[in-house]
Specification:
Largest sheet: 5 strands, antiparallel
Structural class: alpha+beta
Helix content: 55-70%
Distance between the termini: 9 Å
Strand order of the largest sheet: 4-3-2-1-5
Order of helices and strands: HEEEEHHEH
Number of strands: 5
């Protein structure tokens, strides 16, 4: 049972790290001399390695992506906190429903954010000279892991 709890906690921490990195790092889109994330657009001048960063576009869809990514982090942190609270207060045989629901909500939020970004980013960064960055891919990796973690919490029963 101790190994199971340790595995669940490690999975949850991995999801949290993926969510933090994908939200903070400036690599959602990258191209020749520029990198774009949810918060700013950065370009590298050809003469030097100086980065020039500007605030991202005030588009409503980009703000919704920012908000849902932040919500996914909040839900996941809250889920981890609730898991530790329920671990010590839940009666024997009880299930971790609240923890699982918040983790599933975190997964749905990150899925919504990545989906909106996928559909709407051509309006913001037109042109074929870009590729998706690793932070964007990490967001998509965090989605199934968060859902899996939430399902495990819902199924899990407390034992002595």
């Amino acid at each position: 049972m101790l190994l199971l709890l340790l595995g669940i906690i490690i999975l949850h921490v991995v999801v949290l790290v993926l969510l933090f990195v994908s939200t903070i790092v400036s690599q959602w889109l990258q191209g020749h001399g520029y990198a774009t994330d949810l918060w700013q657009n950065c370009t590298v001048s050809s003469m030097s390695s100086v980065h020039h960063c500007f605030a991202s576009s005030p588009n409503e869809w980009l703000q919704s992506v920012q908000a849902t990514m932040i919500l996914s982090i909040i839900f996941s942190v809250l889920s981890l906190f609730l898991f530790f609270c329920q671990l010590f207060t839940l009666t024997k045989g009880g299930r971790f429903y609240i923890t699982g629901i918040f983790q599933i909500l975190a997964g749905l939020c990150v899925m919504s954010a990545a989906s909106i970004f996928t559909v709407r980013h051509p309006e913001w960064q037109p042109g074929p000279d870009y590729t998706y960055g690793f932070a964007y891919i990490l967001a998509w990796v965090a989605f199934p892991l968060a859902l899996l973690s939430g399902m495990i919490y819902v199924i899990l029963r407390k034992r002595e």
